[in-house]
Amino acid sequence: MSAMTPVYRPVVRAGDMCFISGQIGIGPDGMASGLAAQLTQIFSNLDALLTEHHLRRDQVVKATVFLTDMDDYTELNEHYREFFSDPYPARSAIQVAALPFGALIEIEAIAYDPVSD
Fold first, then answer.
1. Collapsed DSSP state (helix, strand, coil) of residue 47
2. pTM of the model
3. Given CB 3.0 to 4.6 Å as the disulfide criterion, which of 15, 18, 61, 116 pairs with 111?
């Protein structure tokens, strides 16, 4: 394998489970500025990946959120409620020292998608 081989896969299916790699607030124009804009871009990225893999938001069963500042937790919840609906996926929130490209937040997800026979 060469050093140029990508090591990032946005979605991996394992049986009925789809694992969505961590999404940060990067879009076509680069990194979004500020938490709200990054969350908007993250959820846009998640929607695109779900759609590409024939998944829906209500199939997401677990989300893991990485925050560089736990004081952003309340604002996260506001955006999270707009993206997901009740019953919400199980979720963990973890404060980290830093994220790639200076992101303030990263969200990864697991979706359940029963494979039809």
1. helix
2. 0.92
3. 18
- Per-residue b/e over 18-36, b at no fewer than 16 CB within 10 Å? bebebbbbbbeeebbeebe
Whether omega for the bond prior to residue 87 falls within 30 degrees of 0, making it cis, is yes
Q: Which fold has domain 11-112?
A: 60s Ribosomal Protein L30; Chain: A; (3.30.1330)
- Which band of pLDDT confidence, cut at 50, 70 and 90, is reported for residue 4? low
Burial class of residue 55, CB neighbours in 10 A (0-12, 13-18, 19+): buried
* Model confidence at 117: pLDDT above 50: no
Q: How far is CA 46 from CA 5, 10, 40, 51, 74, in A?
A: 24, 10, 10, 9, 20
Cα gap 111→37, rounded to integer Å:
24
